[in-house]
Design brief:
The radius of gyration is 21 Å and the shape is globular. Helix 1 packs antiparallel against helix 2 and helix 2 packs across helix 5. It has about 425 residues and is of the alpha/beta class. The longest helix has 18 residues. About 0% of the residues have low confidence. The chain has two domains: about 280 residues, Mur-like, catalytic domain (UDP-N-acetylmuramoyl-L-alanine:D-glutamate ligase, 3-Layer(aba) Sandwich); about 120 residues, Mur ligase, C-terminal domain (Protein-Tyrosine Phosphatase, Chain A, Alpha-Beta Complex), CATH 3.90.190. The two termini are about 30 Å apart. Helices cover about 40% and strands about 20% of the residues. Helix 9 links the parallel strand 5 and strand 6. Strands 2-3-1-4-5-6-7-8-9 form a nine-stranded mixed beta sheet, sandwiched between helices. A six-stranded mixed beta sheet has the order 10-11-17-12-14-16, with helices on both faces. Keywords: ATP-binding, Cell shape, Cell wall biogenesis/degradation, Ligase, Metal-binding, Nucleotide-binding, Peptidoglycan synthesis. It comes from Naasia lichenicola. It is an enzyme of class 6 (ligase). InterPro entries: Lipid_II_synth_MurT, Mur-like_cat_sf, Mur_ligase_cen, MurT_C.
Length: about 425
Amino acid sequence: MASIRWIPAVLIGRAARAAARIRKPGGGSAVPGLVVNRIAPGFLGSVLSSFPEGLVVVSGSSGKSTTTKMLVTVLEAHGKRIFTNPSTANISQGLTSALLERASLTGRIDADLAVLEMDEGHGALLSPRFTARSVLLTNVMTDQIDRFHDSEKVLGMLGRIASRAQESLVLNGDDAMLEKLAERVAAPVSIECFGVGVEVFDAVPGGLGYAETTPERVGDGGTIVTAVKGRSASIAFDEAIHQVTLPARGVHYAVDAAAALAAARSLLGDAFDPAVALAAISAMQAVFGRGEVVTVRGKQVEFVLVQNPASFQLNVNELDEGLDQVLVAMGSDVADPSYFWPVDASRIGRARIVSGSKANEMALQLAYQGVQVDEVDPDLPAALDRFLALPDPTSGIKTIVFTADPMRRTRSHLGLAT
């Protein structure tokens, strides 16, 4: 709640933010959050509890950022004033920093509703500090194995986040592990499901990354992806099939859209307008790095972020065949490069440069899978400069496939927002 007791913490946090930006222009976004969390540990929970229409938390292994942006876009299109963490700052210090950007000196934010992406681990740690009107969980996958070790650990963390839902729990109905959480939910919390139809599920090369799935589990009342082709998708809900344009190619983005629509339907009730919601998503730009197309140094470049084997496979599946210019970068965020070996990356065809701190390991995988690797250079800034200086491609556009660490370094080197 807003309170004069937060004034010193907010002032100190803003001073820390100013100092961090002077020291590192464009960076240091987590510093004020670290400072405020240390000196006023109750600030974050207090502000999260202050929104008139409540808090919505989005978490899970993959798809959090895009799903959050889609949900915010739909709610805003319906006239709601939303506070969110648009920079995908989804850990505790990042969340606090995001709050400081909008909060008054007393810790009040002028918005109807908060929709926040939360990292699984940090969300679990924060869970005692907040209650949520709704919690949306995207999936449980093998992800960040250096942090989370196994899926059961992730499920436990998501369970703590889910336990804070007061009104609804929006779940991926195709995820066998999330079904365990659904079994624990008691009234008055309702369960809303999203997922993909059997035809879509069976047609995805490499699978969706889920274990022991049964797509029928979504049920007749769910929000279901029935067809996907490139950036076009068909999604069924309310006894009708609706068409939507996705911000990037692939069935995984269609699943994100289904998740956002399911959550919006639950939150808005009778005020939900399918036409407004679908138009809002169709006009949305990609979240940075995730199928985003940018113009840098006069060149069009597509950024493709891969964070775990499932996202790597799904994104590679959507690449155009015969791309003339691809740079692949693996960085320090990948603790064990063998993590990605199950991915069939052969569709890349030819990698002009493989870069990042794990460049040699990535190049070895690509070579074993028949990808032509022209050059290996761990120096990412130098590799980016040479890649962008290449003549225009003869097929497609310049494409950079990267993991999270080189994604951030790439954007920083190119002067793009991070």
